Amino acid sequence: MILEPLSHAYHDDLVEAVQDGELWKLWYTVIAPPDKMREEIDRRLDLQSKGTMLPFAVIDTRTAKAVGMTTYMNIDAPNRRVEIGSTWYRKSVQRTALNTECKLLLLTHAFESLDCICVEIRTHFFNHASRQAIERLGARLDGILRNNQVLPNGTFRDSCVYSIIATEWPTVKMNLLAKLSSPSTDL
Questions:
Q1: CA distance 179 to 133
Q2: How far is Cα 38 from Cα 6, in angstroms, rounded to an integer?
Q3: Is residue 55 packed enough to be buried (19+ CB in 10 Å), middle (13-18) or exposed (0-12)?
């Protein structure tokens, strides 16, 4: 798995990826449907131009195709804080080493290159798979922001806010590396 700066060159791969599992139909998250993928790429690139998001295409090195997207978002450079979010992967690569590899790359860069003191990850209260994946990374639940977002379907999102802080990073990193070195580990 590698991360590449998001661009329209990955549009067709991302359309194919979002169709694997019909991800846009999940009620507790917001993922662009195939016919809106170009607009979603434009939206993320616009936020990048404003300095509030750094979007990536997640590339599966086995196929050389984009299998999803992830970002650094809500970038707060003065406070050395960033959020990893707006992440989704095609259904067939979920619950594989790909997410662990992706988060290891993002967290390593955040803590070791950007000198972040905190990395935050948020998800919908009802996105149980995402919450479990975040907890397996070693992030801690800071709290739940109730009704903090209105989703396109009109429901309110309660956001579970997780974080990893700089003093926890060495242990979290060792845990992620151990998970990746053991094929029997639950990723």
A1: 12
A2: 11
A3: buried
CA torsion sign for 178, 179, 181, 184 is positive
Could you write out the DSSP letters of every residue in 153-185? TSPEEEEEEEEEETTTHHHHHHHHHHHHH-TTS
Residue 155 contacts residue 148 (beta carbons within 8 Å)? no
φ/ψ of 179, rounded to 5, equals: -60, -40
Q: Could you read off the pLDDT tens digit of each residue along the chain, which spans 187 residues?
A: 999 999 999 999 999 999 999 999 988 889 999 999 999 999 999 999 999 999 999 999 999 999 999 999 999 999 999 999 999 999 999 988 999 999 999 999 999 999 999 999 999 999 999 999 999 999 999 999 999 999 888 899 999 999 999 999 999 999 999 999 986 555 5
- Under 8 Å between Cβ of 145 and 173: no
Tokens 């616009």 -> residue: 46
Residues, the chain: 187
